[in-house]
């Protein structure tokens, strides 16, 4: 009995100490509402707010609890702790795919999901509601008379021609830290070998490594960086100071990340989840859609070179520990040359 | 004649057995198509899974005595290319788990290295698992590397439901064609029987010839029995008619002698009792000899009908002739007989038979008409038939017996007081039927009977 109590206490404290870490929490709608939709998301509150408000506009009785967490904390909450959320929204496509593949998402079918393009839905579990390209962000002030690179080849040539200008002033994701950076990097290598050449050249120029897109954009704005590679284009375009830098979608290929939503298999009010998913998809796809990302980033302009990351078990490959280990080794040997 | 008791139907039984067979076959077809197609679908899925596992196995390299597995992107993405599938994999070095899903069940491996397969449930869904292995040398000695790849069955289920639909369609189509064929087959199998039935029922009442048309082997015994039955029937009929004619003939002469003797005695006898008895006796003898005569007539008619001779007959002559022959009899009863009609009414027939028929009708008319009445024989030509009509002023026919009267030995209910055999109308009817005509009996609106012989004109 004592042993049992001890183990119970251990479990409790373990659960307490390891509980996932939320970055931000917000509540919308009436606080005494009986119908509460709990959303766990990697997107900032401001980014997602319009979607929530438009959903609640027609449902005065419903409230929404919105929790922001990093993609790794999100995994922890769902996989290890089995936290009860009604909708999980994440930009980490590979991790979302793994959740769905491992049976932690439930299937959902409706008119809205049925009319989705094929790339936007996987197994009736994952639903894509944004398309966010990886862009090259270039400082306007630093690039006064230098021609803008339109492709990776241009970029490589530019860096090779002016090493003195760009030394220590190019930056990209630290793929060891950032899940999104890792996703972009691995998908780049799938699309073309040129990624490795670019990393060699950037490594030779003592490239700076960042955890997140916003830090890179800040660095470009402050003048620390002239060029940031594989920046999340939607973050750049949504900023108020977007006139301070060029956002370039490479013409050779533009990797596009899809933000996806799913209904966890243990969702307490799955019916409401379905309604929210429908609303999300109605607002994001189709002719009169109001996408969360700015419409100025017109992807149809570069449609032929779009490299949409395909949702599916292929994404599990780079999550494989052995695969990840060998990829990171190769990446480090390319970019860390000092 | 009573209708034979029907029990079952050959056609129905044939149809039902054919349909039952077709249903069984259709089900077998459905089952076979389903099974084969399922097997093929399963094999193709297994092949893809095995290829995926093999490509992972091929990507394994040894570096510094350590196994390094470089998971090819296509190994997992290929499994998702047709339909969205959940995919699982596991890589083991001997019993040491290297990567993937540690709990994934693995089929018992074949030591030879051939792919092994297993269906199981994993993470809440049915999956198909393929497993391949390869010998490797590590720092710790020889070992084997084993890769298992699993896939959910949504694509497989789609394929299977399509296969089900196709095999149901094939089975149903097969059955429908079989139904159509069964209808045709049962019809054609029963046709010889229908033909025999038709040919037998088409026959005239006197036609007892054997069936000569060829019949299927199975029906030969039946037809042989039928033929032999008809032969016996014909012989027996002939014998009885011969017998009747012979008997009538033999009886007539003695009867005539008896009548003459009775008349002689009646004339010489003074005893009124005796005379009265003799009168009744003569009456009875008349009756008998008349019956015998008609029986002879009938036998003669039957014989001649079997060998019908067709000659041209002038009906008016024949009518006058017959009337004149009967005139002595009618005058005994003070009956006026008149014959009139169209001149050139010519028919084809046996004059003796026709005259006999008319004679019987006139005889009847004289017999049943009261003394002092009138009998008209009218010959009329209609569009395509000649009508000889005998009209009397007798009691007429009882209305409810009009149909049964021309039958042999049937007499009208109101004729019991009169001498008669009941053969007269029968003979007339047989003759007119043999000539392709009809006998019409009715009552005159003003009383009395009207019997018509309707002959078809040539």
Automatic annotation (TrEMBL), chain A:
Keyword match Signal: yes
Protein name: Putative periplasmic iron-binding protein
Lineage: Bacteria, Pseudomonadati, Pseudomonadota, Alphaproteobacteria, Rhodobacterales
Domain of life: Bacteria
Keyword terms: Signal
Signal sequence residues: 1-19
One Pfam family cited in the UniProt record for this chain: SBP_bac_11
PANTHER family per the UniProt record, alphabetical: PHOSPHOGLYCERATE TRANSPORT REGULATORY PROTEIN PGTC (PTHR30006:SF25), THIAMINE-BINDING PERIPLASMIC PROTEIN-RELATED (PTHR30006)
Cellular component GO terms held in the UniProt record: outer membrane-bounded periplasmic space
UniProtKB/TrEMBL annotation, chain B:
Keywords carried by this UniProt record: Kinase, Membrane, Phosphoprotein, Transferase, Transmembrane, Transmembrane helix, Two-component regulatory system
Main location: membrane
Domain HAMP: 187-238
Histidine kinase domain segment(s): 246-458
Domain of life: Bacteria
Documented EC number(s): 2.7.13.3
Name of the protein in its database record: histidine kinase
């Amino acid at each position: 009995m004592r042993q049992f109590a001890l183990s119970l206490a251990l479990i409790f404290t373990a659960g307490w100490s390891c509980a996932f870490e939320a970055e931000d929490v917000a509540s919308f709608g009436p606080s005494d509402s009986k119908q509460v939709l709990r959303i766990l998301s990697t997107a900032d509150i401001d980014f997602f707010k319009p979607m929530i408000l438009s959903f609640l506009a027609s449902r005065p009785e419903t409230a929404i609890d919105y929790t922001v967490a990093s993609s790794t904390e999100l995994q922890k909450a769902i996989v290890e702790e089995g936290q009860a959320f009604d909708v999980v929204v994440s930009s980490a496509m590979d991790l979302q795919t793994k959740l769905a593949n491992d049976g932690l998402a439930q299937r959902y079918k409706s008119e809205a999901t049925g009319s989705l393009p094929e790339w936007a839905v996987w197994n009736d579990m994952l639903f894509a509601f944004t398309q966010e390209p990886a862009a090259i962000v270039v400082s306007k002030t630093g690039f006064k008379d230098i021609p803008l690179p339109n492709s990776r080849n241009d970029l490589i040539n530019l860096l090779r021609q002016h090493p003195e200008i760009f030394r220590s002033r190019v930056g990209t994701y630290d793929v060891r830290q950032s899940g999104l950076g890792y996703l972009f990097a691995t998908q780049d290598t799938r699309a073309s070998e040129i990624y490795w050449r670019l990393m060699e050249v950037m490594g030779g120029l003592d490239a700076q490594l960042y955890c997140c897109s916003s830090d890179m954009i800040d660095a470009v704005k402050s003048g620390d960086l002239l060029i940031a590679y594989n920046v999340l284009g939607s973050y750049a375009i949504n900023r108020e100071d977007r006139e301070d830098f060029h956002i370039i979608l490479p013409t050779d290929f533009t990797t596009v990340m899809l933000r996806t939503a799913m209904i966890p298999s243990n969702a307490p009010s799955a019916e409401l989840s379905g309604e929210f998913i429908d609303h999300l998809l109605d607002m994001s796809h189709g002719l009169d859609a109001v996408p969360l990302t700015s419409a100025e980033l017109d992807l149809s302009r570069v449609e032929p070179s779009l490299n949409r990351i395909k949702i599916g078990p292929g994404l599990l490959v780079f999550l494989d520990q052995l695969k990840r280990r060998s990829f990171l080794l190769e990446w480090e040997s390319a970019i860390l040359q000092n | 004649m009573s209708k034979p008791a029907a029990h079952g139907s050959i056609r129905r039984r044939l149809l039902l057995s054919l349909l039952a067979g077709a249903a069984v076959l259709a089900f077998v077809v459905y089952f076979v198509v389903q099974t084969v197609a399922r097997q093929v679908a399963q094999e193709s899925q297994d092949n893809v899974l095995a290829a995926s596992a093999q490509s992972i196995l091929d990507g394994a390299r040894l570096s510094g005595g350590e196994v390094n597995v470089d998971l090819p992107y296509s190994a997992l993405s290929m499994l998702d290319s047709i339909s969205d599938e959940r995919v699982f994999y596991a890589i083991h070095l001997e019993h040491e788990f290297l990567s993937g899903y540690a709990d994934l069940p693995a089929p018992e491996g074949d030591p030879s290295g051939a792919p092994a397969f297993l269906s199981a449930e994993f993470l809440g869904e049915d999956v198909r698992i393929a497993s391949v292995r390869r010998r490797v040398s590590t720092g710790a000695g020889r070992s084997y590397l084993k890769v298992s790849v699993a896939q959910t069955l949504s694509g497989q289920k789609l394929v299977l439901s399509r296969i089900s639909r196709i095999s149901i369609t094939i089975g149903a189509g097969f059955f429908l064609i079989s139904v159509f064929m069964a209808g045709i087959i049962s019809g054609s199998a029963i046709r010889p029987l229908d033909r025999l039935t038709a040919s037998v029922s088409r026959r005239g009442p006197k036609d007892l010839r054997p069936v000569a048309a060829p019949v299927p082997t199975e029906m030969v015994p039946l037809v042989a029995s039928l033929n032999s039955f008809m032969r016996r029937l014909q012989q027996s009929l002939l014998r009885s008619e011969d017998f009747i004619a012979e008997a009538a003939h033999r009886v007539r002469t003695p009867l005539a002698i008896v009548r003459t003797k009775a008349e002689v005695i009646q004339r010489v006898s003074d005893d009124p009792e005796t005379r009265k008895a003799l009168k009744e006796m003569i009456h009875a003898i008349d009756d008998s000899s008349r019956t015998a005569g008609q029986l002879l007539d009938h036998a003669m008619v039957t014989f001649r009908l079997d060998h019908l001779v067709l000659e041209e007959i002038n009906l008016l002559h024949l009518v006058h002739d017959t009337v004149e022959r009967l005139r002595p009899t009618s005058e005994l009863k003070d009956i006026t007989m008149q014959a009139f009609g169209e001149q050139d009414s010519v028919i084809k027939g046996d004059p003796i038979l026709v005259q006999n028929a008319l004679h019987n009708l006139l005889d009847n008319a004289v017999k049943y008409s009261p003394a002092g009445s009138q009998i008209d024989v009218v010959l009329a030509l209609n569009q395509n038939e000649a009508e000889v009509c005998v009209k009397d002023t007798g009691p007429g026919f009882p209305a409810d017996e009009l149909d049964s009267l021309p039958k042999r030995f049937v007499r009208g209910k109101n004729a019991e007081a009169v001498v008669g055999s009941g053969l007269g109308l029968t003979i007339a009817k047989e003759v007119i039927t043999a000539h392709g005509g009809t006998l019409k009996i009715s009552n005159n609106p003003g009383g009395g009977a009207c019997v018509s012989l309707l002959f078809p004109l040539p």
